[in-house]
Fold this sequence. Notes:
Layout: E1 2-10, H1 14-23, H2 29-37, E2 40-48, E3 51-58, H3 64-72, H4 75-84, E4 88-89, E5 101-102
Antiparallel strand pairs: 1-3, 1-4, 1-5, 2-3
Amino acid sequence: MKRFTLALDLVDDPVLIAEYEKLHERIADDIAKSITDAGITEMEIYRIGNRLFMIMETDDDFSFERKSEMDANNPKVQAWEAFVWKYQQALPMAKPGEKWLIMKQIFKLTNQ
């Protein structure tokens, strides 16, 4: 199993943020299937203000490159991504076209 943490911002508008949260109460089965087909076994999204934080757990074979290729070839995922972009905004350090950015782990406490 692998674990990744990612961040993305939302447009800082309370109405749009509420709509975005409502959209995620139940995502379309096709979108959920695209996520699991890519090897993502668990996904959680948290919000504070307009900042989103995602935790993904994946199988050992997961790769972002493979997921990107799968998404690019899936018209339903492309439509979903285009639709939700009206709610999202790239982080200041994102390159053109980047949405969710992988976060760097800087601390981990383990109980031995």
